[in-house]
Design goal:
alpha+beta; Beta-lactamase; Jelly Rolls; 3 domains; eight-stranded antiparallel β-sheet; 37 strands
């Protein structure tokens, strides 16, 4: 706390300080309509970052401005404003503008293909977005429950453009940035990405600038001082951007379908327990891409805090924001008490919980839950890529807490900070739930699958599939680049967390209410020219089987490229070997070790084109039809 207090004091005096967790931080407090606004910055005064999902607050603000002018009705169907918005699911006609903003639209989640690009500005993501939605089904009835959804805000961006007659970039500049004098706020279309705070991978390897294409959902560029100033627009009595009625609607708790998350319109949360007890309303919005941000506003006390970072996470940013907020509130005579969680009293598992034994799933994997000798709850991997065991002990409060060590031996203690879960039954369905984030796993029903169908998936078990569909600049090749399929004798009828439907299709048996079901897609297998692919159509991903990937041998001296068909090779026994690459424009190369940790990318700015290979691993060549990457040794 002392360290944070010193930083806060420095901010209030306008000092430039080194801020070790974030590259930029800012604090603004409105006192008698006079803003005290300063900046902490370890980059430079002109640096900007991608504020990720904090961008959602800007597109929501734009929509609420149009509502203030009577141009939008929040409870009107989206199709009233975007007539060419269509889906392969008639329920889409029931999606309202409000549902886009409070995460209850029922949309699958996120179309990821092309959403973040290295050093490239493109209209493709925006221009093809409605076309891609045409092929999708909803995962829930509109309004049924909250589930965090990026696509809703990309759709809202288009809605703002259609109603205003302006590009969102122009709307943001004229109606949000100019009234607040936000000189460093914009989108990919009016930002110089040479000003972006550097992004590093593997500790100290610098990457080319990352250009976010999904503007409304996560593409605004800014600095912490500007984000902090934007937060003042939500202060009580500040009507520069929005009416009091608009701000009130944005800050109402929009929780739906027993979701414990307190979503507002755009805001991640509009209630924080310790602050509510002290009579302080706190609004929070965080975001993560390759950079991170958090905006915290106490509207009645007229305090805005923003922390941005290149590295870390939005959770780290929020922790710092909350510390700064506490100091600012203390100066106003409001002391926030954050009581430590009491040490739980542990006991044996009651008989009533034995009915919860069985298989559970989420959108990625199948697990088993059991209660050995009713001593503890045991969770074991079944179809997870990595095997694991987790142990949880029951408490006298009716919860389960995660333990570190081995409960059987008596040598185990609760994990700190406490990780608490509950087992509960809702509408005949059993769940493992988190008190803050809702359902995490659901109990699956037994499946009967034709023997030949099960055998078709069992043959794929343990096989990894590698991304081929992204462009050379698609950031997905740095992290979301492969998927391993897993079946198990313990979970017939399941592959990973999917329910097997036929030899080439798998889907979902149950969609959990809440954000544990965000960003989902059915799984489809296809074979083209004798090569097998797994397709996650709703995410925009297509991946090729490792069985159809050859070894990179010395006689491979060039690779002919094909658009959206990345060319993978296995690296097998390449100790002390170095490649010299001739990479044409709009092409890229990535190298990974045997654990799929990235070791080289042509978007690592200081590496050049001489590439040392790991002894074992993978290499991928990506580009456009008609181009060739030449390889020298």
């Amino acid at each position: 706390m002392k360290k944070i207090s010193k930083i806060y004091a420095g901010i209030m005096m306008g000092l430039a300080l080194t801020f070790p967790v974030s590259n930029m931080a800012a604090f603004a407090e409105d006192r008698s309509n006079e803003n005290a606004l300063t900046e902490v910055n370890t980059a430079s005064k002109d640096s900007v970052l991608n504020i990720a999902s904090v961008s959602k607050m800007y597109v929501v603000t734009a929509a609420m401005q149009l509502a203030d002018k009577g141009k939008i009705s929040l409870d009107a169907p989206v199709t009233d404003y975007i007539p060419d918005f269509k889906m392969a699911d008639e329920r889409y006609k029931d999606i309202t503008v409000r549902m886009l903003m409070n995460h209850t639209s029922g949309l699958k989640g996120s179309i990821y293909e092309g959403c973040l690009l290295f050093d490239e500005k493109s209209t493709d993501y925006h221009d093809t977005f409605l076309q891609k939605l045409e092929k999708e089904h909803l995962k829930a009835d509109p309004g049924e429950f909250n589930c965090y959804c990026n696509d809703g805000f990309s759709l809202l961006e288009i809605l703002v453009e259609r109603v205003s007659g302006m590009s969102f970039t122009d709307y943001l500049r004229e109606n949000i940035s100019k009234p607040l004098s936000l000189d460093n706020t914009g989108t990919l279309w009016d930002t110089d990405f040479d000003r972006q705070v550097p992004i590093y991978i593997n500790g100290n390897v610098k990457l080319s600038p990352v250009v976010p294409q999904l503007i409304g959902a996560g593409g605004v560029m800014s600095d912490a001082a500007d984000v902090c100033s934007f937060g003042t627009a939500f202060f009580t009595g500040n009507n520069i951007l929005l009416s009091e009625e608009a701000k009130r609607e944005m800050t109402e708790n929009n929780s739906a379908g027993e979701c414990p998350e307190t979503f507002g319109l755009g805001w991640d949360t509009v209630e924080k327990e310790d602050y509510t007890k002290a009579g302080v309303k706190v609004l929070s919005k965080g975001g993560d891409t390759m950079q991170h941000a958090n905006l915290l506003v106490a509207p009645d006390q007229q305090i805005s805090v923003a922390v941005l970072s290149s590295g870390g996470s939005s959770s780290n940013c929020e922790e710092i924001c909350l510390e700064l907020l506490d100091v600012a509130l203390s100066e106003q005579g409001i002391d926030i008490v954050h009581p430590e969680k009491e040490k739980p009293e542990l006991t044996t598992v009651p008989d009533e919980f034995l009915k919860y034994e069985g298989l559970y799933a989420d959108t990625e994997k199948t697990l088993s839950i059991s209660f050995p000798d009713q001593q503890f709850m045991q969770i074991l991997s079944v179809t997870s890529e990595k095997e694991f065991e987790a142990q949880y002990m029951y408490t006298t409060e009716g919860t389960f807490v995660e333990m570190s060590g081995d409960v059987r031996s008596g040598n185990a203690i609760p994990v700190q900070p406490l990780q608490t879960y509950v087992l509960e039954e809702k509408n005949g369905q059993m769940y493992l739930s988190h008190p803050e984030f809702g359902c995490q796993l659901y109990k699956v029903s037994e499946k009967t699958v034709d023997e030949e169908i099960q055998h078709a998936w069992d043959k794929r078990s343990g096989i990894s599939y590698y991304l081929v569909s992204g462009s050379a600049s698609d950031m997905a090749y740095t992290e979301n680049n492969h998927l391993k399929l897993r079946t198990s004798d313990q979970a017939p009828g399941f592959v990973n967390g999917y329910v097997i439907q036929d030899e080439d299709h798998a889907g979902y048996d149950h969609i959990m209410p809440g954000s544990a079901s965000r960003d989902i897609s059915d799984l489809r297998m296809e074979t083209i020219n004798g090569k097998e692919y797994v397709c996650l159509d709703d995410l925009g991903y297509r991946l090729i089987s490792e069985k159809d990937i050859p070894v990179l041998t010395n006689d491979v001296t060039n690779v002919e490229l094909e658009t959206k068909e990345a060319c993978w090779y296995k690296i097998d026994g390449a100790e002390n070997e170095t490649l010299r690459l001739d990479i044409p424009e709009n092409a890229a190369v990535y190298v990974y070790d045997k654990y799929m940790n990235i070791k080289y990318s042509s978007y690592m700015t200081e590496y050049g084109y001489s590439v040392p290979l790991p002894e074992y691993g993978m290499i991928v060549f990506i580009g456009e039809t008609g181009s060739t990457i030449n390889i020298g040794r």
